[in-house]
């Protein structure tokens, strides 16, 4: 939720649009239940000039004192798809906040959008993390018996969903200790140095 104010003059064609104006967001709030992430007091300013978008004053905090700040620039590609890069600096930001685990990070992140794919990367340090209990893997799919009354499910045409452009990963995550695992008889402190490659849907750890 939040507030968005925009003044845009749009011309040109769909393939080569011309946009001028400004958009401002303020009092933005976002929650990601899967991660427990809470974003508060978000704001940004975006200036549009022809096919260029200049994004400034990007700011958001967590539910305590951690912050994300940054900015970037984009150019509108075919069908007005923004191509460019957004750089973000994290400072004691609570990225994970669930009953089973929590984690606070600092460092630099970037999101780069290209024609064929996008990349999420950066170099972050885990200031402190805690695993409180292990979570089971993916829940198995439950088979449900179905009695077809009016026709067959096989007669229903299903369109194949077009896959979105992949989001590649290029992250380095380090933790000079301060990762605590306290669960099922374990009470240990760990350190971490991991490179995360692959994609968001299929990450690869090194």
Key traits:
eleven-stranded mixed beta sheet, globular, single chain, mainly beta, 11 strands, about 0% helix, about 210 residues
Describe the protein's architecture and organization.
It is built from no helices and eleven strands. It has strands spanning 3-12, 17-32, 37-50, 52-61, 67-76, 82-97, 101-113, 118-131, 167-183, 186-198, 203-205. A hairpin with a 4-residue loop joins strand 10 and strand 11 (203-205). The mean pLDDT is 86.
Total number of beta strands: 11
How many helices? The count is 0
How large a portion of the residues is in β-strands, by DSSP E? over 45%
SSE run? EEEEEEEEEEE
Q: Largest beta sheet, briefly?
A: 11 strands, mixed
Helix percent band: under 10%
Low-pLDDT stretches: none
How far the N terminus sits from the C terminus, by CA atoms, comes to: 37 Å
Present the secondary structure layout.
Blueprint lengths: L2 E10 L4 E16 L4 E14 L1 E10 L5 E10 L5 E16 L3 E13 L4 E14 L35 E17 L2 E13 L4 E3 L1
Parallel strand pairs: 8-9
Antiparallel strand pairs: 1-2, 2-3, 3-4, 4-5, 5-6, 6-7, 7-8, 9-10, 10-11
Structure summarized in a few sentences:
The chain is built from no helices and 11 strands. It is mainly beta and 206 residues long.
């Amino acid at each position: 939720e939040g507030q968005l104010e925009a003044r845009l003059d749009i011309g040109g064609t769909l393939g080569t649009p011309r946009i001028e104006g400004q958009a401002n967001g303020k009092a933005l709030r976002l929650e990601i239940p899967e991660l427990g992430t809470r974003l508060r007091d978000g704001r940004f300013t975006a200036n549009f000039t022809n096919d260029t978008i200049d994004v400034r004053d990007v700011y958001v905090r967590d539910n305590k004192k951690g912050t994300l700040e940054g900015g970037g620039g984009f150019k509108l590609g075919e069908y007005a798809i923004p191509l460019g890069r957004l750089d973000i600096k994290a400072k004691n930001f609570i990225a994970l906040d669930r009953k089973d685990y929590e984690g606070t990070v600092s460092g630099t992140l970037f999101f780069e959008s290209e024609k064929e794919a996008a990349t999420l990367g950066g170099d972050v340090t885990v200031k402190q993390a805690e695993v409180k209990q292990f979570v089971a893997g993916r829940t198995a799919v439950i088979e449900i018996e179905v009695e077809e009354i009016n026709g067959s499910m096989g007669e229903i045409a299903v369109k194949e969903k077009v896959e979105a452009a992949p989001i590649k990963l290029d992250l380095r995550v380090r933790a000079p200790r301060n990762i605590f695992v306290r669960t099922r008889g374990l009470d240990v402190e760990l350190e971490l140095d991991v490179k995360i490659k692959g994609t968001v849907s299929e990450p690869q750890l090194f």
